[in-house]
Design brief:
Rossmann fold; Nucleotidyltransferase, domain 5; Taq DNA Polymerase, Chain T, domain 4; 38 helices; globular; DNA-binding; DNA repair; DNA/RNA_pol_sf; DNA-directed DNA polymerase; DNA-dir_DNA_pol_A_palm_dom; EC 2.7.7.7
Length: about 950
DNA sequence: TGTTTCACG
DNA sequence: GACGTACGTGAAACAC
């Protein structure tokens, strides 16, 4: 490619290299070079991003020119203007600093231009180049998410946020700043920036700034005419702080004349030179990346010394993801001979990745369509079993496609190996496949689950679905199921997919699963989460599978009667509401309701929310109702009925399985970052109980004839765990003595006797106790108790005085999170806290989550342990475990076995923490029995 | 598809 | 006095 003159027709990419590095550092788990322990996580992420940029941009939109721009170390000219500029920035983390210079080497190794300039920030260089390129008539894409660069957008310059995969044009800038790119500087000068320590005008944020600029045209005019502003506070601020605002403008204005010693021709895109790039990657010991990039460049991967570590049970596994993923290479197994050959491969290897394909997502209903296997990366097969083809007959049935092994015959061949104790079966979300196999007469065991491996390793960092894992850890985007099945009404089921196409999709899943397993399994030990995975995750799979298949009986008629009654009440309320409003409208629309309440009826309690819509949540409506307004009170009643009807009485009926007559939920083991389970389709963990009307819904959950429902729940488990973890002696003692913990708290705080205590006082103490678990704040407590914020803060201060251990626990936990990037439960479960070092409003959020996680997570671990022991503990009883609701287990038991079951289950639950953790407080369990779930509570 | 509201622990 | 805050979930309806 010959470059003569840079300009029209060219496309320049300017990459914010420093931004890339920080994002890579914070987004990825720490990684060190095996040979000498050099931290290389950020470098690895940086290289991956560079490579991705180069690879992704090969289309017509490809850059013709590209430069990676870095911040130069040391002070910039902005510090001379304003010494406080970025003065509060902490130094880079210790394990990041040594990686900075190497990222420059990496850039050059990829054959990309690398620019930095002393005394200037990367943003200035980017701005200067973008401006010059724009003038020359070229297109420019700035790869960065830094809002300071938004002033450059327009006239052929766009930004691209690589993390969010989002282009930022003039429209997006207007969204963010409320003004066009040409006025961004003005708005920033007024709003300032706490992160960079740009003062701006105190009391004025982006919203107000945009308002002012839009009204007066530009900053100079605004400052000139500041005296005309109506609001006294604003007027004074703008007059008094005019100099400060002008300094802020200097700080936020990017330089368009930064000295740059490269020409555009130096930035022309050229392919990397394998002889330069691969030795660099080898030096970094990036094994997987070297292999992948070598493959892309069409050369052999360099040899890198194998680290001394076990890669799996056989110890001879191919390193994960070394081969490119090529769906064309997978085999379709169509006859018994080939299937037997695969079984032999499995025995030779000792483990196999397995994936089932079905006609849908509901494991209790769907049919098994096919099975995929993989024993080695890149080598996988699909065994189609009941694929259909042709037009089908008049009854909607279709003909079985030819050349498929009959279902039963295939299962008979696979059964021995799938049940073989010496063969490990690996799956992604194995609970699903285990249930499918169980319904087809196969008890698959032993098993490993890549979803749960990832959960144990990376809990809190990201979700653990296969697509996310493949993209993040294998840098591969799997074929989407939507592209195979279509969407919406025209979607088909998997048995209707042509077998050739099905093979590519399905076998790829098994291939990916195997690669993920080869990557994750050896990491458990180093991450110190082997125990977590082996005792809290993996053994839960069969327990939950059994519970879910048990299901719970639901009385359809009861629900149906309630639906009718709710419908009637709602109709009555609706006409009342319309009359009060003076016109008819959709009561279910928060937007319309807000307009009626605040615009048409003129009630107080204005706007909020980022969309600008009125907020009409319970809090607001209750306040209005308390002031004596009828309409909001009626709406609250209507809302409650609408919720109960749509979410429960109506929806639950549709979840009754026609074969079993019962409702089967599905628990997501890796759903909650803390270790809690999540229940879906339907969610049986949020069945109403707090309100009288809602409670009736629990009556529909019933026991089979001759049986009763038995509910056992931990009493105050989170507060007990808090007392233990934070070492609060008087709290511990109260639990040991069996005292009313909220009354005792109130007594300690307000010096009132427990006997004859005012219920209001106890209520407040209770709110504080719960608040502590959630990472208390004056604001939150004030809102919860509906008291002034000052009072709430005073309560909290008193609380911390009386229980100083709590303060220490909170501070220590946040400090631990900041240092390690995660917090831990008493059982060693790690909950990563990626945002903990974030700035701005994010920070408070992350802190509270970090404070809460060890408490909520330890409680979750305890009940997991109880559940895992349960099948063995009750194996001689005719009892069935049906549901888990965070601190409660629900059983279905024949009437005559209730007492012995209760005592056995109670014992297991109360002792579930030991012997691993010896709690200083006893765990106690309350039990209830009844013909339905409401009675059992 | 994202937002709002509300059900639970 | 800038911003927005109790922690963890899932589902349904509305609005775009």
């Amino acid at each position: 490619m010959s470059q003569t003159t840079f300009g029209k027709g060219h496309h320049l990419h300017l990459i914010d290299g420093s931004g890339f590095i920080f994002r890579a550092y914070h987004a990825l788990p720490p990684l060190t070079r095996k040979s000498d322990g050099l931290p290389v996580g950020a470098i690895s992420g940086f290289c991956n991003m560079l490579f991705k940029m180069v690879e992704d941009q090969k289309g017509s939109d490809a850059p013709t020119h590209l430069a990676v721009v870095f911040d130069h170390k040391g002070k910039t000219f902005r510090s001379d203007i304003y010494p406080e500029y970025k003065a509060h920035r902490p130094p880079a983390p210790e394990d990041l600093a040594p990686q900075f210079p190497i990222t420059r080497d990496a850039t050059r190794a990829f054959n990309l231009a690398c620019i930095e300039a002393e005394g200037f920030e990367a943003d200035d260089i980017i701005a200067t180049l973008a401006d010059q390129a724009r003038t020359a008539g070229a297109r420019v894409t700035i790869v960065s998410s830094d809002k300071d660069l938004m002033q450059m957008v327009g006239g052929g310059v766009e930004m691209y946020d690589a993390m969010k995969n989002r282009r930022i044009g003039v429209e997006q800038v207007e969204e963010k700043f409320g003004v066009g790119p040409d006025r961004v500087i003005d708005v920033q000068s007024l709003a300032g920036d706490s992160v960079d320590n740009i003062p701006g005008a105190p009391g004025i944020g982006i919203k107000t700034a945009a308002l002012l600029i839009n009204e007066y045209g530009d900053l100079d005019t605004l400052l000139e005419r500041a005296g005309e502003i109506k609001q006294p506070k604003r007027r004074e601020t703008l007059i008094e702080k005019a100099d400060q605002i002008r300094i802020s403008r200097e700080l936020v204005t990017l330089k368009l004349d930064t000295p740059i010693d490269l020409s555009f021709d130096d930035m022309a895109v050229n392919a990397p030179d394998p002889d330069v790039l691969l030795p660099f990657l080898a030096e970094m010991e990036f094994r997987t990346m070297s292999a992948r990039i070598a493959a892309k460049l069409g050369v052999d991967a360099p040899a890198i010394a194998e680290p001394v570590s076990d890669t799996g049970p056989s110890g001879t596994a191919t390193p994960a993801a070394q081969l490119p993923i090529d769906p064309e290479k997978y085999e379709t197994v169509r006859d018994v001979d080939r299937l037997n050959a695969w079984v032999q491969k499995i025995y030779d290897r000792g483990y196999v990745a397995v994936d089932t394909e079905t006609t849908g997502l509901n494991e209790m209903i769907v049919d098994l369509v096919g099975i995929c296997l993989s024993v080695e990366p890149g080598e996988a097969c699909y065994i189609p079993l009941i694929h259909k083809e042709g037009e089908g007959d008049l009854f909607g049935g279709s003909n079985l496609a030819p050349n498929q092994i009959p279902l039963d015959q295939a299962l008979d061949i696979l059964r021995p190996v799938l049940q073989d104790e010496s063969i490990l079966k690996i799956g992604q979300n194995m609970k699903y496949d285990a249930k499918i196999f169980k319904r087809n007469g196969i008890d698959i065991a032993p098993i490993d689950d890549t979803m749960l491996l990832s959960y144990a390793l990376h809990g809190g960092l990201h979700n653990h679905g296969m697509d996310a894992l493949a993209e993040r850890y294998l840098d591969h985007k799997p074929i989407s199921i939507k592209s195979i099945l279509g969407t919406g009404k025209s979607a088909i089921t998997f048995d209707l997919v042509p077998i050739d196409e099905a093979t590519k999709y399905a076998a790829e899943d098994a291939d990916i699963t195997l690669r993920l397993w080869q990557m994750f399994k050896p990491q458990l030990h180093a991450a110190k989460v082997t125990k977590v995975y082996e005792t809290l995750e993996r053994p839960l799979i069969p327990v939950l599978a059994k519970m879910e298949m048990n299901g719970i009986k639901v009385d359809r008629d009861h629900l149906s009667r309630m639906s009718n009654s709710f419908a009637q009440s709602m109709a009555g309320l609706e006409s009342e509401i319309h009359e009060l409003a003076g016109r008819s409208f959709n009561v279910g629309s928060p937007k319309q309701l807000g307009e009626i309440l605040f615009d048409e009826l003129g009630l107080e309690g204005g706007k909020k929310g980022k969309t600008g819509a009125y907020s009409t949540g319970v809090d607001i409506l209750e306040d209005l109702a308390a002031e004596g307004h009828d309409l909001p009170a009626r709406v609250l009643d209507w809302r409650q009925m609408s919720k109960l009807k749509s979410t429960y009485t109506d929806a639950l009926q549709t979840h009754i399985n026609p074969d079993t007559g019962r409702v089967h939920t599905s628990y997501v083991i890796s759903g909650a970052s803390t270790g809690r389970l999540a229940s879906t389709d339907p969610n049986l963990q949020n069945i109403p109980i707090r309100s009288e009307a809602g409670r009736k819904i629990r009556e529909a959950f019933v026991a089979e004839e001759g049986n009763v429902l038995l509910a056992l729940d931990y009493s105050q488990i989170e507060l007990r765990i808090l007392a233990h973890i934070a070492k609060i002696d008087n709290l511990k003692q109260a639990f040991l003595d069996g005292h009313d913990i909220h009354a005792m708290t109130a007594s300690e705080m307000f010096h009132v006797p427990i006997e004859g205590m005012d219920p209001m006082i106890r209520r407040q103490a209770k709110a504080i106790n719960f608040g502590v678990i959630y990472g208390i704040s004056g604001f939150g407590l004030a809102r919860n108790l509906r008291i002034p914020r000052k009072e709430a803060q005073a309560f909290i201060d008193t609380y911390f005085e009386r229980f100083p251990g709590i303060r220490k626990y909170m501070d220590d936990t946040v400090a631990f999170a900041k240092e390690h990037g995660h917090v831990e439960t008493l059982f060693g479960r790690k909950i990563h806290t990626a945002e903990i070092n974030a700035k701005g409003p994010h920070a408070g959020f992350a802190k509270r989550a970090a404070i809460n996680a060890p408490i909520q997570g330890t409680a979750a671990d305890v009940i997991r342990r109880a559940m895992i022991q349960m099948p063995d503990a009750i194996k001689n009883f005719p009892a069935k475990m049906l549901l888990q609701v965070h601190d409660e287990l629900l059983f279905e038991v024949p009437k005559d076995a209730v007492e012995e079951t209760t005592e056995t289950v109670r014992k297991v639950m109360e002792n579930a923490a030991s012997p691993v953790v010896k709690l200083d407080v006893p765990l106690t369990v309350d039990a209830g029995v009844g013909n339905n779930w409401a009675e059992a509570h």
